[in-house]
């Protein structure tokens, strides 16, 4: 078997810090620079642990930020690894976080471009792309789509997240049952302990947010701040629901009618 050289002996995290370069921003009123995380025009995010988790309400800018980090690592905004382009963007009219990357600076030690950008929303396209690429190379296709949605996700993580590199995961829980989320947590734990993988993940799952050793950040309308798992809205809401489902629902669903 061919010996696969380690990219670096240095431990993760490899991407140490990202910050915005205000001089490169042409218009702070336009997306993505009008997102709350840039309101003070001096955005900076430091990565001090192998696993970083970003939480926040829908629409606060998590995917946009991950797209930009993915672009800094050399990944396409639709997901995939370095050099993969699973989707034809030539006819797209929307702007993405990749434009944001042009106004960010990343500090790496060392620069690592091996790894993967996983996006739940483009899993189907990426899986098709991988099958076709394997067929074109006269190899056996990975065939992630011949499994249930959640089974395909887990097989994908098991196969793709083994090597040294930087892994960006956008809502990886979206097809996973709670039991499968625990499987993913075990995988994340292995990656964390290996010291050779950096994970930057956006999630709405309280289970994944509880990942031991991970550093959590919350995006709100005031910006991006470190937070603790017990302080997240997700944990508090699930705790209140689990401790009194009827009372919780009575309050949540019928309060407007009272
Ligand atoms: N292509 C775009 N053009 C203009 N505005 C956009 C575009 N994409 C997203 N936005 C705006 O940026 C905001 C943040 O979107 P983004 O997808 O990054 O949020 P998110 O935190 O990942 O949300 P979710 O939790 O729902 O995935 C959205 O509310 C939307 O108003």
Automatic annotation (TrEMBL):
SUPFAM superfamilies: P-loop containing nucleoside triphosphate hydrolases (SSF52540). One of its GO terms (cellular component) is plasma membrane. It is a peripheral membrane protein. PROSITE patterns: ABC_TRANSPORTER_2 (PS50893). InterPro entries: AAA+_ATPase, ABC_transporter-like_ATP-bd, ATPase_AAA_core, P-loop_NTPase, Rad50/SbcC_AAA, Siderophore_ABC-ATPase. GO terms for biological process: double-strand break repair; iron ion transport. Keywords: ATP-binding, Cell membrane, Ion transport, Iron, Iron transport, Membrane, Nucleotide-binding, Transport. One of its GO terms (molecular function) is ATP binding. Gene3D superfamilies: P-loop containing nucleotide triphosphate hydrolases. Transmembrane segments: none annotated. Residues 23-246 form the ABC transporter domain. Pfam families: AAA_21, AAA_23. The keyword Repeat does not apply. Its main location: membrane. It comes from the Bacteria. The keyword Membrane applies. It is found in: Cell membrane. This is Putative ATPase.
